[in-house]
Amino acid sequence: MNNLEKGIIYLFSFIFFPVGLIVWIITVFNQNPQYKSVGRTALYVAAGSLCLQFLIRVLNFVWYT
Q: Where are the transmembrane segments (predicted)?
């Protein structure tokens, strides 16, 4: 898997949280360690994105209430 493909997966994982989860589920059962690493990183990016979105929503709620 080249760097462009990895970057696209990470970008979509950041923008759309479920994509990172789906990629992780697919790569968990793969025997290639490179794909497992990509899946794990996509999961971390998706989790970070979810936390960031939650923080922004809480701050937005506090700011405008």
A: 7-29, 41-64
Task: Break the chain into its structural domains and give their ranges.
Answer: 3-64
Taking only the tens place, the pLDDT of each residue in 27-63 is 999 999 999 999 999 999 999 999 999 999 999 999 9
At 57, the amino acid letter reads R
Report CA torsion sign: 21, 26, 28, 34.
negative
User: Which tokens sit at 39?
Assistant: 């899946």
Using H for helix, E for strand and C for coil, what is the string for the chain? CCHHHHHHHHHHHHHCHHHHHHHHHHHHCCCCHHHHHHHHHHHHHHHHHHHHHHHHHHHHHHHHC
Contact 60, 52 (CB under 8 A): no
